[in-house]
Write a structure and sequence with these properties.
mainly alpha, 9 helices, 49% helix, Gemin2/Brr1
């Protein structure tokens, strides 16, 4: 194999070069490098037969979610829900493309995206949020008002289509925080499903992390519902659905239920 730096053929340095001494010039240094390169074998085989490699040295932690017996959905059910969800997202995209002007028309004023308490009241109602001061509502807007009800506002398309991606991700983060603090409900399940349906790909790294946290919280609530022998089986089904969408549709398969 020919050295990369080529061969030095200067007779001035060939005759007087002493290999036992340190190089005294640039040419002597290059000659030393050339000589060492010619002494290297073309192929080197590493010997890894060592005791320290006989055992696994990396501790791999599994990311599987807690799976309550008899409460996890089948693989077929997960795939069917994923396909239905993908179809809904396509319909939403087509509708928004055809109705760019009319899709934003709504007689409800949305809270500021940075006001978590207002969104809590808006989505989940007074049973979950704190009572608002009546002065927070702009009385000058006669045809629009912030939703204020016991059960909160439904995630209607007229509301969702007014939310840009920044707002969708922010409100989704609020719901994940509330899920950690409160119990899970069908009201919150509807909002989570709707927000996920409006979440555009590709996902940002922080959004992926948020979805994984959502799946873990849902798995914990599912385990609690099973342990307390709740009569509301639909609540477990709703939690299974959110976990399935995060793991199967949004690609976090390491957290998926085995089915």
């Amino acid at each position: 194999m020919e050295p990369v730096i080529g061969f030095l053929e200067n007779e001035e340095y060939t005759d007087d070069y002493d290999e036992s001494k340190l190089p005294c010039s640039g040419l002597e240094y290059l000659r030393r490098v050339q000589q060492e390169a010619t002494e290297c074998p073309d192929v080197v085989v590493a010997d890894i037969r060592n005791k320290k490699h006989s055992k696994q040295t990396v501790d791999i932690k599994t990311n599987n979610l807690p799976v309550p017996p008899g409460a996890t959905p089948s693989y077929k059910w997960q795939m069917q829900q994923t396909a239905d969800f993908a179809d809904i997202r396509q319909k939403i995209a087509r509708f928004q493309a055809k109705n760019k002007k009319t899709s934003n028309q709504c007689d409800v004023t949305l809270p500021n995206k940075n006001d978590e308490q207002q969104w809590r009241l808006f989505c989940l109602g007074r049973s979950y949020g704190c009572e608002r001061n009546s002065t927070e509502i702009d009385s000058s807007e006669s045809n629009s008002t912030i939703m204020d009800s016991q059960d909160g506002a439904l995630p209607l398309s007229s509301i969702l289509f007014r939310m840009n991606q920044v707002t969708v991700q922010q409100v989704l983060e609020y719901h994940v925080n509330w899920l950690e603090q409160e119990t899970y409900s069908h009201v919150q399940g509807r909002w989570l499903y709707s927000l996920l349906a409006c979440l555009e790909k590709p996902l940002l790294p922080e959004t992926v992390s948020l979805l994984r946290t959502l799946a873990r919280h849902c798995a914990q609530h599912r385990m609690k519902e099973v342990e307390k022998n709740s009569d509301d089986d639909e609540l477990v089904v709703s939690l299974n659905l959110i976990i399935t969408l995060v793991t199967r549709y949004f690609g976090q398969t390491d957290l998926a239920d085995p089915g």
